[in-house]
Amino acid sequence: MNRKTILVITIFIIALGFVIYKLAFAKGAAVAGLKVISSPNASVYLDDKFVGKTPYDGQKASGTYLIKLAPEDSEGGSVPWQDKIILSAGALTYVKKELGPSDLTSGGEVVYLEKIANDEVQLTVSSTPDAAVVSIDGLEKGITPLNLPITEGEHDVVVNSTGFIGRTVKIKAVKGFRVIVNLQLALSPEAQVSPTPTASQTGAVTTPGASEIEPQKPYVLVKDTPTGFLRVRLDASLSATEVGQLKPGVKVPYLDEKSGWFQVTYETGKDGWISSRYAEKVE
């Protein structure tokens, strides 16, 4: 995995008063907390209504809202961001966004709690792009989207994807709740300037005209990617060794599939795994 992707990590601590918001919300169980941080500073809108500027820390009625951040330095090239968020009664929803010149170069996370049955403690992690590697307290747990039980207390959640800037979030898990972490990974500077590799440079399909030859069905069609190529790995894991790269538009024989992955023949006599996020099975 790109070492710089691991090292260039946005680290911050969510001091979750989360459920212990009881003092502030003693008079209304339907009230939720919302904390929003952004870089650069931005105006905050909920359902198209202006509620303040970042850093924002306030209380709202619980429910689902469309949140929009409009950067104040519009001339600086930062794009606005919007998405749906959930404000849970008696809990805090935390939003942090780093607004870049495009959606691909913007990053951030939304963290909130969801009430679940009994005294279970769970964690759900999703990301854009998906199939990102999730590590909890230094141990790899799987790829996004991921849902798993977790022990009560504080945990470090690290999410990495090749070609993107990894992110680290410190959460506090509480009994009877699921902590939901939705992350957006920004494209790394190296990936933004990477030229589209040729087949001979990547060890991908090297047979002349191979990308124009349609294999027997089923086959896999490589779609456009943020980096201009799709990595082929030895196994169905983002931590597996990279063995080649495929250009968008290439059609390769289909062999097998696992959740989030296709196994293909990427070169004569050579098999590997590619992310199904950027590929399509044609039958």
From TrEMBL:
InterPro entries: PEGA, SH3-like_bac-type. Residues 217-283 form the SH3b domain. PROSITE patterns: SH3B. It comes from the Bacteria. SMART domains: SH3b. This is SH3b domain-containing protein. It comes from Candidatus Gottesmanbacteria bacterium RBG_16_37_8.
